Amino acid sequence: MSVFTPPSRLLFGPGPSQVPERVYQAMAQPIVGHLDPFLFEQFEHIRAALRELFGTKNQFVHALSGTGSAGMEASLSNFVLPGQKLAVFSAGYFSERIIDMGKRHGANVVVLNKPWGETFTEAEATEFLNKEKPAVAAFVHAETSTGALQEPKAITGPAHAVGALTIADCVTSLGALPINVDENGIDIAYSCTQKGLSCPPGMSPVTASPAAIERLRARTAPCPIWYLDYGLLLEYYEGSHRYHHTAPVSSIYALREGLAAIMEEGVNKRFARHQNAHQYFVKRAAKEGLSLLVPEGRRVPNLNTLCVPEGVDDPKTRKRLLTEKGIEIAGGFGPLAGKIFRIGVMGPLATEPNVDLLFDSLLECMK
């Protein structure tokens, strides 16, 4: 068997993002059993840091064994009963995934659609929700496919007015910008580890409000997905630590260390660093005569969607960038295929020198 030597890349795509060396070193540490007290101590470190990043005082804050899509599926399967009305605000690929999952779980899914890259106003949300009166309303906070940032209160306020719980997809936002779960009235939120947290993929941070947990406990039938049943998982994470599944110990080490690095930097300083890098990205784009898909004020700071200039071959440019410069970025898909570059400026790469490196390389490869 040949020597295993993965290529060294600079991950400027929408995820996975660049992982600090200390996180890799944590993954190399000896594993313990999934019921070892040491592991549950790490869970508590993780939960405390996630509360700060989510901006919540919720008791229910955990990291599921599974990627961000597992968090999405857990949120829907635990809090949306078959036959209940689920309202989805759809303006990108991942809101469409919520719709698909909701239908698979037997929800009565109603949708407010807008073109990809747009966001929803409070007036639009109010009209839609007053008409539909759903049990749950779901939206994407930071849409990975478009780089558009949704104002949460525009949806959560009208949703609560009709008695609906709110679900927010925070896959791209957690760790890179404020979410303010409590202040913004988000009942259920889920994310991932491989974007704003700068950790390897494989876990899904989640949180749920007391109101959501109260509704969860009122269920008369169990969650249809055994692996993601919060009732069972709470017995493992918080209660008697009764065996549920074999937790991914090395991934937990990585998340613990990645969160420790964030806490050492300071949450607000980290948010500011990502915002500053984004502002510099926008200035550099303007200097080069390039434009962004999403208007100012609605952009995800750590995921920039740069319009592909006329005459530039999107796939060939990205291929050259990867093979000649060792830099990964992503293209658009769906209605945005061939029209945008999706460029993540996250974690260790969220600095002005790295933005310059990215632009200098991209401009050379576009020629």
Structure, explained:
The chain has 367 residues and is α/β, with parallel strands linked by helices. It folds into 2 domains: 10-14 and 266-366, Aspartate Aminotransferase, domain 1 (Alpha-Beta Complex); 21-262, 3-Layer(aba) Sandwich (Aspartate Aminotransferase, domain 2), CATH 3.40.640. Helix content is 41%, strand content 16%. It has helices at residues 21-27, 37-54, 68-79, 93-104, 122-132, 153-161, 210-217, 230-237, 249-265, 267-287, 314-325, 352-366, and strands at residues 10-11, 60-65, 85-90, 108-113, 136-140, 142-143, 148-149, 165-169, 188-190, 203-208, 303-307, 327-328, 330-331, 340-344. It has a 7-stranded mixed beta sheet, with helices on both faces. Strands 11-14-13 form a 3-stranded antiparallel beta sheet, with helices on one face. Helix 4 (93-104) links the parallel strand 3 and strand 4. Helix 2 (37-54) crosses helix 9 and helix 5 packs parallel to helix 6. The relative contact order is 0.17.
Low-confidence segments, given as residue ranges, are: none
CATH class of the largest domain: Alpha Beta
Class from helix and strand fractions: alpha/beta
The CATH architecture classification of the largest domain is: 3-Layer(aba) Sandwich
CATH topology name of the largest domain, in short, is Aspartate Aminotransferase, domain 2
**CATH evolutionary superfamily of the largest domain:** Type I PLP-dependent aspartate aminotransferase-like (Major domain)
Number of helices: 12
**End-to-end distance, in Å?**
40 Å
Largest beta-sheet details = 7 strands, mixed
Computed Rg: 20 Å
What letter string, H or E per element, gives the SSE order?
EHHEHEHEHEEEHEEEHHHHEHEEEH
Mean pLDDT across every amino acid position = 97
**Which word captures the global form?**
globular
Beta fraction: 15-25%
Give the fraction of residues assigned to helices: 40-55%
Number of strands: 14
Q: Strand order, biggest sheet? A: 2-10-9-8-5-3-4
Q: Number of folding domains? A: 2
